[in-house]
Amino acid sequence: MKQLQLQLQHSADGKLAQVESLDSTLAAMPLIIAADGVIVPFRRQPKSPKDKILWQEVKIALLARLGKYQKKAGATATRLHQRRLVAVWVTSML
Question: How is the chain split into domains, by residue range?
Fold first, then answer.
């Protein structure tokens, strides 16, 4: 949470996000990207079952690096090596 708060503060101050270093082995792996939007329920008062439900859209993206490895039997299989999940609450559509 401390790291997230620090990143949000840097974003609010207009500073650019710090770029993560990526080793050459991981960079050579295929990058898979998937995205979608979902509708989720929100309440104006948290944890209040009597408040009216507001349905809002949340955009979600998944980024993953996939690599191959050899099984004991000699067959090649795919393994997830790195993943990132990004979600954005859509407050208004232009």
Answer: 21-90
Residues 12-42, buried b or exposed e (16+ Cβ, 10 A)?
eeeeeeeeeeeeeeeeebeeeeeeeeeeeee
pTM value is 0.59
User: In terms of C-beta density within 10 A (0-12 exposed, 13-18 middle, 19 or more buried), how is residue 90 classed?
Assistant: exposed
Q: How far is CA 8 from CA 1, 2, 12, 19, 26, in A?
A: 10, 10, 6, 15, 27
Q: Indicate if the pLDDT at residue 70 is higher than 60.
A: yes
Q: Is the pLDDT assigned to residue 92 strictly greater than 80? A: no
Distance CA 89, CA 58 (A): 4
CA atoms lying within 13 Å on the CB side of residue 42:
11
Tokens of 35: 């995205």
Which two three-digit tokens encode residue 1? 């949470």
Residue labelled with tokens 């507001």: 54
